[in-house]
Structure formats: structure tokens, C-alpha cells
Amino acid sequence: MTETLTESHAEPSVADAEALLSDELLAFLACRTPDAWVDWALENPELLLIDHAQCEKKAASTAMSLLYRYVDQPLLLTKMSQLAREELLHFEQVVKLMEARGIAYRHLSASRYAEGLRRHVRANDPERLCDILIIGAFIEARSCERFARLIPHLDAELAKFYRTLVKSEGRHYEDYLMLARHLTDAPIESRIAFFAEREAALIQEPDTAFRFHSGVPA
Questions:
Q1: Closest by CA position to 132, among listed 74, 214, 66
Q2: In the predicted model, what is the mean pLDDT of the chain?
Q3: What DSSP state is assigned to residue 2?
Q4: Degrees (nearest 5) of the Cα angle 35, 36, 42?
Q5: Inside any domain, residue 32
Q6: Cβ atoms within 10 A of the Cβ of 117, count?
Q7: Which of 23, 88, 97, 149 is most buried by its number of CB atoms within 10 A?
């Protein structure tokens, strides 16, 4: 399976793949994905795809929960409806890829990444919604960055698919951040900086189980 994941292809170098990312997105993240995680991902191709599918499903679920909770926010309803549909399409696409490669979708325990961010969400609105949207922006931005880091090492089919995801997840990052600014009266830069520091720590700290958003191998 690893050989299939990394067979020869004509995808870009690491520098070229990173060029798929906007300067704003790269500046938003406080660190880049460590090389150790990339190596870990290539050693666990089945887990990479299974957890990727799971992440897409969770992203759709998050968008749907916001649709149900904040029914008085028309812009949020529009953006989250679009996002949920796109994330579910991505889920279907990943499962189809897995099926073609003989990988069975199964439940995996969650990484500490999302919970490590959400534990800092403030209890009451509008601060609660602001934090959830900022966290959504970080999750989508990190996903983009990780897709770009992986692209140069993948087989042609998977690399091409991840290139399309860089674009769509980049839009999701922009939408989450736009909504956080639009729906919050007070400046949000201090909260962005707060979560940037914690997100970077989660990305760089050791983990015992590989996941799409895990840290480095312990």
C-alpha cells in the first residue's frame, strides 16, 4: 500500500506545492507541519485516508450543528449549508478512493487536535460563536497546509485529488474567518493569536497514534 501511495508521478516539488497556499493562510498558521509528521503519514497510508474521510464527515457535522444553533444568522446559514454539502462530497470521494484501493472505512478514535482547541471555547455567545468560527478557520487552514505538504510524495491520483482539496478547503478557511469577523463586534485578533499558539503546540507536540491532525510521533 505504501508503494502505491508514493509511486512515481509528475506532481510539484515541496516548494511548488506550498505555492498553492496563499500568503495569508501561511501567515495565519503559527508553524508549518513538521517533516516527521509527513514521514509518519507516508508510513500509514491506510490510516491517512480513513482519518481523512472521518475528518470530512466531522466537518460536515460541525457545519450542520451551526445551521441548527444559529438560525438567526442568514450569512452563516448560507455559508454553512454550502460547506456541509462540499464536505460530504469530499467524504464520498475519499471513501470511493479507499474502496478502489481495497481499504475498508472504519471508525477511528479522534486525535486530541480538535478537542485541544475546543476546550478553550468561551461559554456564552457571541464569544462562543466567535471562538468556534476561529477554530474552524484553523482546522481548514491546517488541512490545506497538510494536503500541500503531502502532494509531492503521493501517487498521481491522490496528489491530483489533494490539489483540488487545497482550493476548496482554502475557501472554507476564508469563510470561517470572514464569518468570525462579520458576526463579532469586537476585534478578534487577540483570539486568533490565542488559538494560533495553541494550534501550533498541538501540531508540534508528540502523539502516540497517527491521525490527519496529529502531532509528531512520540
A1: 66
A2: 92
A3: H
A4: 90
A5: yes
A6: 21
A7: 149
Residue 15: band (very low, low, confident or very high) from pLDDT cuts 50, 70, 90: low
Residue with cell 516527521: 36
Assess if residue 7 is contained within a domain. no
Nine-digit cell string for 201: 503546540
Residue 9 CB contacts under 8 Å (≥ 6 apart), including other chains: 154, 155, 156, 159
Q: For residue 203, how far is the Cα from the chain centroid?
A: 12
Query: Per the confidence metrics, is the pTM higher than 0.85?
Result: yes
Confirm whether 217 is domain-assigned. no
Domain that holds residue 133: 12-206
Residue 21 lies in a domain: yes
